[in-house]
Structures are given as C-alpha cells and as structure tokens.
Design goal:
The chain has 108 residues and is an alpha+beta fold. 28% of the residues lie in helices and 12% in strands. It has two domains: 1-43; 48-94, no CATH class.
Length: 108
C-alpha cells in the first residue's frame, strides 16, 4: 500500500493499494519499455504525432525539438500560452488514472 499524507489535510491521507507483486510487475514492464526506447536508433523507432493543424498548435508550437520534424525553427514560449486549460487535450487528472495493462505496447 502507498499512503500519501498532505499537510493541508493531515487526517485524510490518500491510500493506493499496491503490493510487492504489482511492484515487481511494474518494474519489469518499465524495464522492457526502457530497453525498447534505448534500443531505438532510427526515426521509425520514434514515430512523431500526426502533422495536423490542431497538433501543430497544441504540441509542436511548444516543442523544443520541432525543427527536427520540419515544423518550425524555435519553440513558442510557454509563458505566452496563457490558460493551460486550452493546451491539454484531455483532463490531466483523469488521464493519469490508468493501469499498465491499459497502455498499448509499441510494435517493433
């Protein structure tokens, strides 16, 4: 079990069920993903997002590597973004609620 305690609500810790078997499985899965990432050497090993107007506005405009994809030379300033609610395509909190079983494997 993982228990998170916050000073703003000391009597209301957030508890996540988590045991050594889950930890071992997560460790193995992350090791596999890391090995796959480190093994990538060609552009095909690292697919880029689709080149659409929406993606260019949301992601490419602020990516410091955009020149590598021929989608501009310099990244935009995140300070100029203003309201970050418009930046994220999904609700970040709900998007972070997932299990590793829900994550698609990368084809190699």
């Amino acid at each position: 079990e993982m228990r998170y305690w916050f000073t703003a609500a000391p009597d209301q810790p957030v508890v996540f069920r988590y045991d050594s078997a889950q930890h071992a499985a997560n460790h193995e899965r992350l090791q596999q993903l890391l090995a796959a990432i480190l093994a990538g050497q060609r552009e095909a090993d690292f697919p880029k997002i689709a080149d659409t107007e929406i993606n260019r506005k949301r992601f490419c405009s602020y990516c410091i590597y955009r020149s590598r994809c021929n989608r501009g030379v310099t990244a935009g300033d995140l300070e100029e973004l203003g309201d970050t609610e418009d930046f994220f395509a999904v609700d970040v909190e709900s998007a972070l609620e997932f299990t590793l079983e829900e994550v698609d494997e990368l084809a190699f």
